[in-house]
Amino acid sequence: MKNFTSVHDVKDTVKLIRDAIKLKKDPWAHSALGKNKTLGLIFLNPSLRTRLSSQKAAQLLGMNAIVMNMDKEGWALEWTDGAVMNTNKTEHIKDAAMVLSTYCDIIGIRCFPTLTDREADYSEHVLKQLIKYSTVPVVSLESATLHPLQSLADGMSIFEKWNKPQKPKVVLSWAPHIKALPQAVANSFSEWMQQLDVDFTITHPKGYELAPAFTKGINIDYEQEKALRGADFVYVKNWSAYEPYGQTPAVEKDWLLSEQKMKATNSAYIMHCLPVRRNVELPDELLDGARSLIPLQAENRLFAATAVLKNMLENIKEIKPHHLQHA
Ligand code: CP
Question: What residue ranges of the chain have pLDDT lower than 70?
């Protein structure tokens, strides 16, 4: 794949999931592949898992990783073409991407949504501007609307645990939170589940409908207890409203999952991408219980990143430094 920004960049989703699982058996098997190649990781927002799993994945593949916490250490970037840069924005993405492409063979970027400008967020303006001005492949480390590396790790976790002939019932269940969160994990999980042979349901309170582009044809149930019936996997996640955008409309019922509610499931596995606010999004009893897949999901982030970078490295042709490409 050239870039990795969503499930649609993947030719064969099931094969990528299986390849990522296979990497776990011999993590250093491809340590020569990335020799003399550099991964540049640009963070506009905080991260623990994505940052460290990407750096470690680069190590497994023999790459060098350089990380820039742009929000704290870099120049403030201007993302709009033709801007008159007489504000606090110091460097244009056009110039920054040229420099990054000169130093790096693959660039990763984390760029959260504004949650105020839906048009800009849902057009993936920031990610697309980086891709437009980079001359090397770009991997999303979570963008305004999607988190494909997380979804790949989630798909791996479901594959590893499910060994029955029938389709598993997978339920994405909205959870309470104290602040407005992006819709990216939920959108992305929905996209990936649609590519797999699973029976997929989303349950959330009225007012928390996801963007129609990500839920077309999917079973949506406003009754959590009904949705949980017979579930094999319950993915717990908060997100803010798509309409009105980025808001957190009041919720009447108690949406916090509990041991009691889980009795309606088929002894379902519990999933969450982390970070989690304990006893707000999920109770300790479920987070620490025997059915929690959360440690496996976190472990799989490493192999998801390795599988994606490996695939990209295999597709990279010799790239000349940016300044020579115009020679
Ligand atoms: N799940 C996830 O992306 O975690 P981080 O935000 O810590 O990277």
Answer: 317-327
From the CB of 134, is ligand 1 less than 6 Å away? no
Pocket-testing residue among 43, 185, 273, ligand 1, by greatest number of atoms within 8 A of Cβ: 273
**Would the CB of 224 count as within 6 Å of ligand 1?**
no
Backbone phi and psi for residue 135, each to the nearest 5 degrees, phi listed first: -110, 10
DSSP state of 77: E
Shortest-distance Cα residue to atom 6 of ligand 1: 47
Fold of 150-298: Rossmann fold (3.40.50)
Check pocket membership of 48 for ligand 1, CB cut-off 6 A.
yes
Q: Where in the chain is the domain with CATH 3.40.50.1370?
A: 7-146+300-324, 150-298
Q: Find the farthest-apart pair of alpha carbons in the chain and give their distance in angstroms, rounded.
A: 67
pLDDT digit string, tens, across residues 5-44: 999 999 999 999 999 999 999 999 999 999 999 999 999 9
Topology (CATH level 3) of domain 7-146+300-324: Rossmann fold (3.40.50)
Structure tokens at 286: 């479920």
Question: How many other C-beta atoms are found inside a 10 Å radius of the C-beta of residue 120?
Answer: 15
Nearest CA to ligand 1 atom 4: 49
